[in-house]
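Progress report, Aim 2. The chain analyzed during this reporting quarter is listed below.
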Amino acid sequence: MKKIGILFGKERSFPEAFVQRINSKQIDGVSAEPVRIDKALQGQPSGYSVIIDRISQDVPFYRTWLKNAALTGTAVINNPFWWSADDKYFNNCLMTQIGVPIPKTAILPSHDRPDDTSDDSFSNLAYPLDWDGIFGEVGFPAYMKPFAGGGWKHVYKLHNKEEFFEKHRETGQLVMLLQEEIVFEEYYRCYCIGGKYVRIMPYEPRNPHHLRYVADFAPTAEKLQEMTDIVLKINRYLGYDFNTVELALRNGVPYAIDFCNPAPDADIKSVGPENFEWVVETAANYAIEKALANNGGDQLTWGEYVKRSAGRMPF
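Predicted C-alpha cells for the chain:
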C-alpha cells in the first residue's frame, strides 16, 4: 500500500477534504491519511510514499523530520531542503536574472541586533546605511515586510522616510524588505501545483481578508496565457510543487509581487468554493500521480536554479 500523508496545523477544511478526495477515488494500492509521527529515528523511513507539508515553516521539528523522510524515499511536497534555503528576497533576486518583472526591492538589516551579537559583529556593515540611495531607488509610497515572513504580518505601507524610520523601529530583530509600490489595475493570485497545473484567481488585496477573492477582474485569453507562462516559469526555476504567485498588472504588465508561498491559503472560507474544489482535486490527483511513480530513491523536485548551478550552466 502506498500511503499519502498530509502534515498540517490548525487548518481543517483543506487537509480533511484532501484525504477524503483521494480515498474516494479508490485507487488500487493507494490510501491517504493525516501524517502520524510517534517516534523519529535517524535513517528510518517515514512509511509514506508522498507527504504534503502545510506546517513545517512554523515547526522546526517537522522540517527536520521531513528531511529524513525525503532521504529515505518519500516525495515531500514541497522540497524541505529548498524551502529551508529560500526566502522572498532571493526570489526577487532570481527574477532579475530570468526576465520576470518585479518591484524594485532592497533588503534591510534588522533594527535591533540579533541575540548574542554586539556592535563588533557588524564590522562589515556601513553605518549609517546609504538611506538616500535606497529611498531614491525604491521610491515612496513603498511597502516594508519581512524578507522571509508569510501572510500579512508586519506589513507596512510607508509614504516618506520619516514614516519609514518610525515603523522600522517597531520591527525589532526582523529582517525586512523595502519594496516599491505597484499601483495596479488588476491583481491575481495564481495557484501552481506540480509545476504544470495553474489556477488564475482574481484577487483584491485591498479588501478585508475574507473578501479578497471577491474581485471582478476579467483578463483576456491572451493575458491569461501570459500570466500562466510567468507562473510556470517562476515555479520551474524555484522548484515548488505547491505554491502561489501573486501578479499585479500595471499598464498591462504583470509584476510578480509575492511568489514564495509554499503553504498557501487553501481554506474554503477564504478562497471560495470553486477555487477550493480546484485545489483539492488537483492536489489529490498530483499526490496520487507522485505516489504511483514512487519506486524509491530521491523523489524531490529541484528547481532550474539549483540544477543549473550544480551543473554550472548559465541562465
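The longest strand covers residues 242-250. Residues 27 and 282 are 15 Å apart (CA to CA). These observations will guide the mutagenesis work planned for the next reporting period.
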